[in-house]
Amino acid sequence: MGDETMSDLTERRLQTVRDHMALECVGDWDGVIATFEHPRYEMYGSGAVFDGEEDVRGYFAASRTPFPDQSNEIIALAHGGDTVLVEFWLMGTHLGPLKLPGKTIEPTGKAFRVRMAASFEFAPGSDKIICERPYFDQLAVPRALGLM
After folding, report:
1. What's the chain look like in SS3?
2. CA 17, CA 48: separation in Å to the nearest integer?
3. Is the dihedral of CA 26, 43, 85, 57 positive or negative?
4. Contact at 8 Å (CB) between 18 and 110?
5. I need a labelling partner for 100 at 20 to 30 A (CA). Which of 8, 117, 125, 147 fits?
6. What radius of gyration, in Å, describes the C-alpha atoms of the chain?
7. What percent of the chain is predicted at pLDDT more than 90?
8. Within a 10 A sphere around the Cβ of 48, how many other Cβ atoms?
9. Given pLDDT bands bounded at 50, 70 and 90, which one contains residue 139?
10. What is the pTM (predicted TM-score) of this model?
11. What is the pLDDT of residues 52-105, one digit of tens each?
12. Alpha carbon distance 97, 100 (integer Å)
């Protein structure tokens, strides 16, 4: 780290999260993977864990099947310790089959916009992500689509 100040590291981490989320919006999965030291998602709502590049790429493919235009809009960012917190709007259009527990919902063409939060954990002294933890209500998107 040398003579680098913590504020420099903080700004690089905030920029990594901005870049990560922007790359998700355009489906640049190689770029998203490059923001990680080790790709890992821990889904707070469902308890699912996607660990390693293969798992994470599978998650990207599965989550974009029902919502190929899925995107996000950052509302706020905060940094503390080795974590960046982000609040954001998650948006998309139901254009593919949506798998829900016990059933699959065919495309409705309806759009959704739900408020979410996520934490991004960084390796100490690094601007590379070691884990993203989205926090969300699993029923928020089906409710926003009028499916519940």
Report:
1. CCCCCHHHHHHHHHHHHHHHHHHHHHCCHHHHHHCECCCEEECCCCCCEEECHHHHHHHHHHHHCCCCCCEEEEEEEEEECCEEEEEEEEEEECCCCEEECCEEECCCCCEEEEEEEEEEEECCCCCCEEEEEEECCCCHHHHHCCCC
2. 21
3. negative
4. no
5. 117
6. 16
7. 85
8. 11
9. confident
10. 0.90
11. 999 999 999 999 999 999 999 999 999 999 999 999 999 999 999 998 888 999
12. 10
Q: Read off the pLDDT of each residue in 29-38 and give the average, rounded to a whole number.
A: 98
Tokens 């519940």 appear where?
148
Q: Domains in the chain, ordered, with CATH?
A: 6-144 (3.10.450.50)
8 A C-beta contact, residue 34 and residue 63:
no
